[in-house]
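Annex B. Sample input.
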Amino acid sequence: MERLAIDVDAVDVDGAPWEKRLSASIDLLFELLKIDSPSGDEGPMADWVTAWIQANCAEARVARMGDSLIAIRGEAPATAIFAHLDTTGFTLGYESRLISIGSPAPEDGTPVREATPNGRRGVVRECEDVWEVADVDGVAAPGTRWVYAAEPFQSGDEIVSPYLDNRGGMWAALNALTRCPSIAVALTTGEEHSGQGAFVCARYLFENYAVDQALISDITWDTEHVHCGKGVAISLRDRMVPRQRFLDRVLSLAEVSGLPFQREIESSGGSDGAYLQRSGFPIDWVFVGAPEKHPHTDHEVVNVRDLRVMADMLVALVEGLSE
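Annex B, continued. Sample output.
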């Protein structure tokens, strides 16, 4: 895996170590982690984020389509950041069986709860190759939505929580929205399950603003070649292949930024970029995301510095792609 030759602890840009230039507080991330939004039930998150944008970025114009939403700053933004609102989860089926929403990866005994205020709690049990919910405090109705029950916490430079995918990507995108005077941020639904939100937002942005460049703000995986604590990952490909000329431009701007990043190459997996590529609209895209350990479990792990580099990289790329 080729990587930019940067010493993460020694990089100095404009006379200041890169850590001192990093974007601000991650308090917003912990607020986002409090809100449930398994695919198909993103409404509460869309409501909360709309109110947050109105309170913290008053000059942004918000358009909502179902539970997907787009925030626009400037008259003619050149680049959109896509970040999905939804997470994995479960639908409770008959006979206490848990039906996957997306691809959650629980272990036997993982605590779960109903995705409602004061919802019932239980644990996942693996039984004959299916998941069931057991030890429920009361009677759980079939058709209810369930999510991981673990609480987020920070330990040193690491945050441990369910659903950092994609709360981390949302945090970075909202951070960029407050810092870039000309930008579009699309917060999409259904990435974990169908991708409908990316199609809807692509149409709106292309037809109303002629946006034809996108950055995918999402979380990727810590692997043999891409590691937590080494900066943001920029994907050269997953199961989809972005247009090479746009990818080259993004990589060139990333190098100029001086921020630490890793080049990721995968043969599988996907993101909202895959749905953009299938949308029928000529929107170039590149995936930019912090790596995490234990994906789709209730104990995902990301490095705080990686998240902050991710936000700063998005800002640098949006500004560079606007020139």
